[in-house]
Amino acid sequence: MIFGRLLVSWMESHPEAMNGVDYVVGNPTHVGRQPIQHIEAIMDAAYTEDVNRAFPLSPPGAHRLVKHAETARSANRTLEEKRAAATAHAAALTWTGDISDIRGATILLVDDVFTSGSQLQHVALRLRAAGAADVRGLVLARVPWSG
Q: How many helices (H) and strands (E) does the chain have?
């Protein structure tokens, strides 16, 4: 719950960054991920914390962006391998609503950890290719840069 509260608190305290956002979506983990789908749990908690429904979050279990196929993980890989994994990850994503919803939309893409930025970049590029006007990124943690 704490990360959901952190996300809602950030959105409340940064109205300029939230201005015009049509969808707040998590960068999804595979639906079969065990023991938990991290970002989905965070997004569900954020929806619960947003009691006034001030933000365009999806209800628990109705995430707008899902990942049905497992792809290679990027942890402990070279930068080139991270980029390849990010490309595969982005290709495995599905928008669950009407694809026309993306056209012209501003999307806040939320992720739990930022390592190289490749995954966030490739998902944003995929959303832009589908017609999103703007994709903004927000991460909860940053891995120290190791060069």
A: 5, 5
